[in-house]
Amino acid sequence: MSQAISSASRFASVGRKILIGIGILIAALILGGQMGLLTGKRPVGLGVQDGKLKPAPSSPNCVSSQATTEYHQIAPLTYTGDGQAAFAKLKGIVSGMQTAVVIDSKPGYLYAEYTSKLLGFVDDVEFYLDEKAGVIHVRSASRLGHKDFGVNRGRIEAVRAAFGA
User: Fold this and answer.
1) CA 153 to centroid of chain Cα atoms
2) Other Cβ atoms closer than 10 A to 39
3) Residue 138, exposed/middle/buried by CB under 10 A (0-12, 13-18, 19+)?
4) Cβ atoms within 10 Å, residue 22
5) Region for 70 from its dihedrals, namely left if φ exceeds 0, alpha if ψ lies in -120 to 50, beta otherwise
6) Which pLDDT tens digit goes with each residue over 111-147?
């Protein structure tokens, strides 16, 4: 009987140590994020070239209205009427989002960085006004990590909802 109690006691001790280790790891990750260690570097090649935004990478952490692969595809924003007025409305929406900072704004092009609240991950989001097609193309990509768990798609859909309101 004392052998069973001893085994149970050792098992509980190991379990506590594992939980403490996981807690320390999570705290270090959060601290690193708050210190800006998880921001990544601003990518090169952003902007519009020949009517196209930067292509989506092969990893599943980006959505683009100009993507050719099914996972990455997302519909562009649509508008009626004046494209410049629609783009100005979009800029107001993006500028008003808590986690967004507009980095570059030119006629027909907008680039913003979105930073996650807890860990400080930065995503790069671009919008391109294509007045000939009557749409605003979108691209949202994570800087770090392989998968985004739908964050980029959700962000663009939130922008779309506000844009349509």
Assistant:
1) 8
2) 17
3) buried
4) 10
5) alpha
6) 999 999 877 899 999 999 999 999 999 999 999 988 8
Strand runs (DSSP E) across the chain, as ranges?
A: 62-64, 77-78, 100-106, 109-115, 122-130, 135-142
Average pLDDT over residues 139-159: 94
CA angle in degrees (0–180, nearest 5) for 68-72-77: 90
List the Cα angle 62/161/47 in 5-degree steps: 40
**Nearest CA among 128, 131, 126 for reference residue 81:** 131
Overall pTM surpassing 0.85 (yes/no): no
Q: Which two tokens stand for residue 107?
A: 């006629």
Looking up tokens 């980095």 gives 103
Contact 95/113 with Cβ under 8 angstroms?
no
